[in-house]
Amino acid sequence: MLLEIKKKVYLYLEPDEESSNSDRIFNYFIIALIILNTLAVIFETVDSLFLKYQTVFKNFEFFSIIVFSIEYILRLWTCNLNKKYNQPFTGRIRYIFSFAGLIDLVAILPFYLPFFIKVDFRFLRIIRLIRLLRFFKLGRYLHAASVIKKVLIEKKEELILSLGITFFLIIIASSLMYFVEHDAQPDKFSSIPETMWWSVATLTTVGYGDVYPITTLGKTLTSIISILGIGVFALPAGILASGFSNRLKKDKHCPNCGGKID
């Protein structure tokens, strides 16, 4: 009897494509609660709203903590039904220190922390902002999140390579601009690490304008580097777009038989 209840609870907590209506309602409730918590953290920083609706914010936070705490306890109880955590004790320890487990723990930790240790008020405000990490709990409730995870895993080598190329280009651009502009602007291009700020701003086409070249050669290099930056920073977007396209093709299923469509 207890095992059946445990299995039912596990199915509620771990949604899949064949979830029942009651499972979906629970999932939608958790999704809505996570989104509302994210909005609450944002609006709490508006003093006029916080002072006017302080009681509402506090009551909502208390309600959310109860729900997320119960959810965390139930996940600890049922996690060993998952093959990755099937050992009664060590499996639960592995779950606690898994990425999903840590996100669940951090989602409720800021509320309980002041009860165990004395926390400075300024530090407490920073800790409370950790509640924004509750947003990452959405990952297990949205199918799209699992698709993103699969794409990132499949394309990790290409993404790492593109990031490496980007970092290499930043170093090259910073070094060239330092040697070209240092004599003309020793305060702006004082060192290669300092010049990296200009390099990142230029390569990402942000162009804040607080640091810019004044020599003819420096302006010419900036034009070339800006054009290269557009192409280099477009690489990860192209890799991810290709990955999503391939993944969506793999995940297509026939609506009649349920089989994969080639």
Describe, in plain words, how this protein is organized in 3D.
With 262 residues, the protein is mainly alpha-helical. It has two domains: 2-141, Four Helix Bundle (Hemerythrin (Met), subunit A) (Up-down Bundle), CATH 1.20.120.350; 156-250, Helix Hairpins (Orthogonal Bundle), CATH 1.10.287. Helices cover 71% and strands 0% of the residues. It contains eleven helices and no strands. The chain has helices spanning 2-13, 21-44, 47-52, 54-78, 90-96, 99-116, 121-128, 143-154, 156-181, 192-203, 216-250. Helix 4 crosses helix 6, helix 9 (156-181) packs across helix 10 (192-203) and helix 9 packs antiparallel against helix 11 (216-250).
What percent strand?
under 5%
- Helix percent reads over 70%
Please give the count of helices. Answer: 11
Count of distinct strands: 0
Query: What shape does the CA trace take?
Result: elongated
Structural class: mainly alpha
Q: Average pLDDT, to the nearest integer? A: 76
Radius of gyration: 25 Å
Biggest sheet record: none
Low-confidence stretches: none
CATH level 1 class label of the largest domain? Mainly Alpha
Please name the CATH architecture of the largest domain: Up-down Bundle
| CATH homologous superfamily (4th level) name of the largest domain | Voltage-gated potassium channels. Chain C
Question: What is the string of SSEs from the N terminus onward?
Answer: HHHHHHHHHHH
CATH domain topology of the largest domain: Four Helix Bundle (Hemerythrin (Met), subunit A)
